[in-house]
Structures are given as C-alpha cells and as structure tokens.
Amino acid sequence: EQLQKKEIPYIFIDSNVPSLRPLAFFGQKSEQSGYFAARMLMLLAGEDAQEIVIFRKINEGIVGSNQQERREIGFREYMREHHPGCRIWELDLHAKRDGEDAQMLDDFFRVHPTVKNGITFNSKAYIIGEYLLKKQKKDFNLMGYDLLQRNVDCLKQGSIFFLIAQQPTLQGFDGIKALCEYLILKKEITRENFMPIDLLTKENIEFYYNR
Predict the structure, then answer these.
(1) Which among 6, 46, 154, 160 is least surrounded, fewest beta carbons within 10 Å?
(2) Residue 7 confidence class, pLDDT cut points 50, 70, 90
(3) Which of 33, 31, 52 is nearest to 41 (CA)?
(4) Is residue 2 over pLDDT 70?
(5) If you count DSSP H runs as helices and E runs as strands, how many of each does the chain have, helices first?
(6) Can you give the three-state secondary structure of 56-96, one letter per residue?
(7) What's the rounded mean pLDDT across residues 24-49?
C-alpha cells in the first residue's frame, strides 16, 4: 500500500520564509518596522543626526536572517527619503566570536567619537548595551529589537533607549490557535498576520513585559 504524502502545515512566528508556503505567519512587516525605526532614531538623534551606526551580527559574512535584512532595507529607505545627507556607518560584530566585540567597539568609538546614535536589527542589542554600561558611556543612544531579558535589563538601566517589540506571547498564542483551527475545525486561515510595531522605553516596559 502506497502512503500518500500530506502537506505539512507550517506556522512561522516572527520570521517568515514565504518560499516554504507556510499555513500562516505571525510577526511584524519587517520593512515597515525598519522604516519606523529610522524615523524614531532620527527624532532621538536631533542635532546629532549627521551620522549614525548600524551594528550587525555577522556569521561567516552572512547576516543572521532575512528578517534583519528586510528591516535594514526599510530603514535605509526612510533615510534616503528624509535624511539623504546622513552618514551611515556599519560595524559588523562576529556571531561566533563574542570575545572580540569589546575590542571592535573600542576601536569604532575611538575612530568615530562624534557618532552618538545607533541601531541593531537583531535581538542582541544587549551586546552593545552591556558594553556601554561597562564603559559608562552615557552619550550614545541605542535602539534594538525584541524582549530578551538582557535587552530589557539594558533598557531599564538606560544603555538602550528604545526597544521595538511585537507582542511575542500573542504571536505564539495566535499561531497555536490558527493551527488548531486548521487541523481540527477545518477553517480557512489568514496567511499573513502582521503584529503591531511597539516602541518600548524604560518608562513603559513594565506595563508591556508583564502582561
């Protein structure tokens, strides 16, 4: 007897892979998130908006996810439209060699002492945030993504100014709900489900993080 192949119903959370034709995706629209992040960073930068830095985590020359790449695309689109004269520096930190990060950050800030604003599009903003705390460098505004506890700790201590979040608990809940409705109730499922782009600070993190 020949077994019939059944299509596996993928549910993607946070990062989408459209080529795999998932049943549903729950997460932010990455390009719009990056566009929004650029606007917030420029408002934060104020008079220091002539130059900024993008921090990346690179694994053997490759950015960690297509989500990060799309966020940066949206970010750069906003910058081209509204701040074409702003110099954007890039610092690639090594994903598998964390011990080198402090030295690379030391070198960057020594060579670029006037850069006061930066962003990372992955979830490891804490690497820069913890460095800023250790060096007691309080004249730099950092933005990052996601509610890792170390990111939240840096936000509360002031080394990360903004975190962008996307209701991760609700994403997981809605993903399981969609899978159950598809498998058990045979419902038609909406394929793309975009989450809000939430901007968090140390003043509002407790109201968001504990719900």
Answers:
(1) 6
(2) low
(3) 52
(4) no
(5) 7, 10
(6) EEEECCEECCHHHHHHHHHHHHHHHHHCCCCEEEEEEEECC
(7) 93
